[in-house]
């Protein structure tokens, strides 16, 4: 049985039961696609079944002969992205300029880790852009502070049902919608089958539980002397919560009750026994077993790529784009390194994120949203709303929300799954069906203005305190819970 | 300029001595006024605003304009915070060790390069490389050299049989700060070397020759003749290095971001994280005010050292 067949078999059964997780708490009825049928087969079935006229649709929102000016910042490409992503971004801006030749667009691509800092600073000086595409974590913070204009899918000719219910939650504050999802993704578990085989593990089977990940990592390290699991624990880097939160939720923990069906964010659970158990698992891998990279404390996911492609790392969590990136890295390698890299790519496998001890499977429901700023915070004090809506209409269209998510994510607009380009993606991007199948297990970050600090600072800090021995696991968890409590109280 | 102004002294009677002096030097003031205005805008206003902000609470859930006055609470919170003392200790170690060692290394290199030998020019150019390389680029290069799993230094030590496994330089709370200090010294010693090489040009050769004739050994010549002549430039160099190290941001931020577990946070990186990562503008401003006061003290000694040199020359 090939990996794909095995994966499909597992996924078929698993996805049926996944519909009850938090992402699905909003009714699935009336969505642009039938989320209750979500499975690799269903995704393949609907791909290529509908045509969308992007230009015609957006012309009804903002006429294509409109003359205006727009400033736009976006969370864009970073060093770990494959070339196809760069090409698609370039194509989008060319297409926008061709469609709206009289809109003078000034765009700036900023990487994930820098965007929030830069945007916050710009807001303090009333020098923000008119439109911004932010990571999913940021929308609530800026909406709650009153920086954003209300903006809903209806403003650019779509409906809420065209987007994932969980994604719409992330752009809603106090009952008002302040943005439109551009893309949404969930990651998957990646491993090197050859390393598994050499370590005496089943090469075609991903670890089923997080306890298995700990055990596999140790077995691989002890037998082969290489790192097992690609832990990431860098502070102030988005990669860290994206990889630790699935583990935390899997064990039944959480920062609050964000993994519950109807979260209220009123109870802090970072110091619960389940959360401590999840942190203990990281401690066991890093300190007790020394089975993960020593550099995990300063690593981002991009730092895992070189060890993985050189056969020095066996497991990691990432996007489908990781496969394309590995292909690129293998293409750049020479001599003996190339043979190793080619073998790694050949042996690369994707599977579902492991579950916790009670069978709970969870993954961060990630993505980005696009917003319009209030004029008083914008450089020049004016927002060209029709120009902003023209850009947003194109970006969030089924066509471009899919193309701009090509290898790293999935379209925010569910109509993207029905386009011919989705079919092309499924045919050309290996393992896309696996990561797409994780979407129903996705849990959005808490929709609180304090969420960026909790996820980017407090959670990584908790990991570092435990992993460096600065605190015990218990102390680190309690310390983090106190920090969250103080933060919600307003802090200083 | 002053002389020119004095020839135009007006006949207007002046009661006030200060006002009269200002009037006499009015052309001088007119020339420096644009620079003073620019400084008022880009330095004085931000300083004033930072001091003001340090008395306000700025919760991350509110806009900055909705800040809440809380008197000295930010200062109290800082001074009673365990992190503050940890970061302060890191800052003291970082500044003191970087400054002293970079100065001594620079002095040694300056003395060595002051003598004529074949390849001196080439060596001087090579030793200047750390100073001219971008600090950002150097930080990334050193990060990879130190990498705990695949670093060149670790691989070399393992290859030479010195250690069984690569040493953990920057992912360990005990070794991270010394490791960063080494990088900082590597970058800064060239600056000290250039300053001291310039200072060495001012040491009178006839004095050194006379001392040699009188039987003074190398150490005596250095201690009694060379070093006293370098005192002024040494003072300036040490103060400039100290101020620069106190404010040093690039190396610790890029290489570790202050981690792991705050072990390499110094004041300036901690202030940045408080302000931009956590949006505690009030607390970050209070930190900045304290840092500003310390730097002003260092600045006072720096200006005094410079003035002492001027006074000495004028006396001569």
How would you concisely characterize the structure shown here?
The complex is a heterodimer of chains A (492) and B (316). Chain A has helices spanning 3-17, 40-46, 54-61, 83-99, 112-124, 139-144, 165-170, 193-198, 210-224, 239-250, 273-288, 302-309, 321-332, 335-346, 385-395, 398-403, 420-428, 432-437, 451-467, 473-488, and strands spanning 68-75, 103-110, 131-135, 172-173, 176-177, 180-185, 188-192, 227-229, 313-318, 348-351, 363-364, 366-372, 410-411, 442-443.
Structure explained in plain terms:
The complex is a heterodimer of chains A (492) and B (316). Chain A is α/β, with parallel strands linked by helices and 492 residues long. Chain A has 2 domains: 37-185 and 365-443, D-Maltodextrin-Binding Protein, domain 2, CATH 3.40.190; 188-363 and 450-488, Periplasmic binding protein-like II (D-Maltodextrin-Binding Protein, domain 2). Chain A has 20 helices and 14 strands. In chain A, the strands form 4 sheets. In chain A, strands 2-1-3-12-6-13 form a 6-stranded mixed sheet. Chain A has a 4-stranded mixed sheet with strand order 8-9-7-10. The longest helix of chain A is centred in the N-terminal third of the chain and has 17 residues, at 83-99. Chain A is globular and about 65 Å long. Chain B contains 14 helices and 2 strands; from the N terminus they run αααββααααααααααα. Chain B has helices at residues 2-6, 17-24, 26-53, 73-79, 82-114, 120-132, 135-146, 152-159, 176-200, 205-213, 218-246, 250-255, 267-277, 281-315; strands at residues 56-57, 68-69. The longest helix of chain B is centred in the last third of the chain and has 35 residues, at 281-315. Chain B is mostly helical and 316 residues long. Chain B folds into 2 domains: 2-39, no CATH class; 73-136 and 175-315, Orthogonal Bundle (MetI-like fold), CATH 1.10.3720.10. At the A-B interface, helix 5 and helix 19 of A face helix 4 and helix 13 of B.
């Amino acid at each position: 049985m090939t990996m794909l067949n095995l994966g499909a078999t597992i996924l078929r059964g698993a996805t049926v039961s996944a519909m009850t997780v938090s992402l699905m708490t909003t009714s699935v009825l009336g969505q642009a696609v039938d989320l209750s049928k979500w499975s690799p087969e269903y995704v393949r079935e609907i791909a290529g079944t509908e045509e969308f006229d992007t230009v015609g649709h957006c012309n009804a929102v903002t006429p294509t002969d409109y003359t205006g000016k727009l400033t736009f910042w976006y969370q864009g490409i970073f060093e770990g992205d494959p070339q196809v992503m760069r090409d698609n971004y370039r194509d989008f801006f060319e297409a926008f300029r061709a469609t709206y030749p009289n809109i003078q667009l000034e765009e700036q691509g900023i990487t994930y880790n820098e965007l929030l800092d830069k945007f916050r600073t710009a807001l303090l000086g009333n020098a923000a852009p008119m439109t911004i595409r932010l990571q999913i974590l940021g929308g609530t913070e800026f909406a709650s502070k009153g920086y954003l204009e209300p903006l809903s899918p209806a403003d650019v000719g779509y409906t809420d049902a065209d987007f994932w219910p969980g994604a719409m939650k992330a752009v809603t504050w106090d009952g008002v919608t302040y943005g439109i999802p551009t893309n949404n993704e969930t990651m998957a578990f990646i491993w090197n089958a050859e390393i598994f085989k050499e370590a005496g593990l089943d090469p075609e089977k991903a670890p089923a539980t997080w306890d298995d990940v700990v055990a596999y990592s140790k077995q691989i390290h002890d037998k082969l002397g290489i790192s097992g699991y690609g832990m990431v624990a860098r502070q102030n880097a988005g990669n860290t919560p994206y990889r630790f939160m699935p583990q935390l939720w899997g064990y039944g923990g959480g920062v609050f009750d964000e993994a519950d069906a109807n979260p209220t964010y009123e109870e802090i659970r970072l110091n619960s026994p389940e959360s401590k158990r999840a942190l203990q698992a990281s401690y066991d891998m890093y300190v007790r077993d020394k089975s993960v990279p020593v550099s995990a404390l300063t690593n981002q996911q991009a730092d895992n790529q070189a060890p993985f492609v050189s056969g020095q790392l066996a497991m990691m969590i990432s996007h489908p784009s990781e496969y394309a990136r590995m292909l690129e890295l293998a293409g750049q390698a020479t001599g003996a390194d190339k043979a190793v890299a080619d073998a790694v790519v050949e042996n690369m496998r994707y599977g579902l994120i492991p579950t916790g001890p009670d069978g709970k499977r969870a993954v961060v429901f990630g993505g980005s949203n696009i917003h319009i700023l209030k004029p008083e915070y914008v450089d020049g004090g004016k927002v060209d709303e029709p120009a902003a809506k023209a850009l947003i209409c194109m970006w969030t269209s089924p066509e471009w929300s899919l193309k701009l998510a090509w290898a790293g994510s999935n379209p925010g607009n569910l109509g993207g799954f029905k386009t011919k380009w989705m079919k092309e993606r499924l045919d050309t991007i290996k393992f896309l069906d696996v990561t797409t199948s994780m979407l129903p297990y996705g849990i959005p970050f808490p929709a609180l203005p304090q969420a960026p600090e909790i996820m980017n600072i407090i959670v990584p800090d908790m990991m570092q305190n435990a992993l460096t021995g600065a605190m015990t696991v218990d102390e680190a968890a309690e310390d983090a819970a106190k920090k969250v409590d103080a933060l919600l109280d307003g802090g200083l | 300029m002053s002389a020119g102004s004095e020839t135009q002294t007006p006949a207007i009677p002046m009661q006030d001595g200060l006002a009269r002096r200002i009037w006499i030097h009015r052309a001088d003031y007119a020339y420096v006024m644009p620079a003073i205005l620019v400084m008022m805008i880009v330095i004085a206003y931000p300083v004033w605003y930072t001091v003001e902000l340090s008395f306000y609470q700025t919760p991350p859930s509110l806009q900055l304009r909705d800040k809440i006055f809380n008197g000295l609470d930010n200062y109290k919170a800082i001074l009673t915070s365990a992190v503050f003392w940890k970061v302060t200790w890191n800052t003291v170690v970082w500044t003191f060790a970087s400054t002293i060692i970079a100065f001594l290394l620079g002095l040694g290199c300056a003395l060595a390069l002051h003598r004529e030998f074949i390849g001196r020019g080439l060596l001087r150019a090579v030793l200047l490389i750390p100073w001219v390389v971008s600090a950002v680029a150097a930080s990334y290069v050193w990060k990879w050299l130190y990498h705990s799993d695949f670093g060149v230094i670790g691989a070399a030590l393992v290859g030479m049989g010195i250690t069984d496994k690569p040493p953990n330089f920057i992912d360990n709370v005990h070794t991270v700060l010394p490791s960063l200090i080494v990088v900082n010294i590597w970058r800064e010693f060239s600056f000290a070397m250039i300053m001291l090489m310039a200072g060495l040009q001012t040491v009178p050769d006839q004095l050194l020759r006379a001392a040699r004739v009188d039987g003074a050994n190398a150490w005596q010549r250095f201690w009694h003749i060379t070093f006293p002549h370098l005192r002024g430039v040494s003072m300036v160099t040490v103060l400039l290095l100290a101020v620069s190290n106190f404010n040093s941001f690039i190396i610790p931020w890029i290489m570790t971001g202050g981690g792991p577990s705050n072990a390499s946070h110094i004041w300036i990186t901690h202030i940045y994280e408080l302000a931009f990562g956590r949006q505690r503008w009030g607390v970050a401003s209070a930190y900045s005010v304290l840092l500003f006061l310390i730097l002003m003290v260092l600045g006072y000694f720096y200006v005094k050292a410079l003035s002492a040199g001027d006074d000495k020359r004028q006396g001569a």
